[in-house]
Amino acid sequence: MQKIILNNIAEIFSGLSYRRYLDESGEDFKIIVQRSIKRDGELSDFEEASLKGNIKDRYFTQKNDVLMKMTYPYDVVCVNEEKLVVSDRIAIIRLEKGYDPDFISHLLTNAHIKKQLHELGGSGKIPHTSLKEIKQLQLFVPDFKIQKKYGELLNTINDKIFEDLRQVDYDRRLKEAILNDLWEANNEL
Length: 189
Prior knowledge:
With 189 residues, the protein is α+β, with helices and mostly antiparallel strands. The protein contains 4 helices and 9 strands. The strands form 3 sheets. Strands 2-8-5-6 form a 4-stranded antiparallel sheet. The termini are far apart.
């Protein structure tokens, strides 16, 4: 296991301030905003907007980009879909070869990383971090084969968490439907 600085293994930059590019006659894009990055690496709930066509390629997702919210709780996701626009206040982390993006994205959600961000960052009502602080993060990283194995294992655990949460949501809606049916049956009497 080696200790590394994130900036030494990745290109790290901020997303696009996309509101400057709004154009009703422009091209339609899906935009990753703060709410799009969920806990445990889920990516959903995109903003959609028409934007001018002169956006630099660096602001579009590439397969295996790691995205990190720059506000607390610093949620992280590994992206598989290309050509999504990444908005500001989200760090785009493009790893060098030899580093597994799934493993690194899980690693960046660890309590030790959040502690580093807290120690590096300023205090405020809403905790946040900067690109400079993200670049300084110290990681302990095993060799690539072990990264791949841990990345796959942690993805499997996340898949189970998502499925368990979907089942809980289904059960809550089922319970509510049963109670609503009971209520409506009593109102008919």
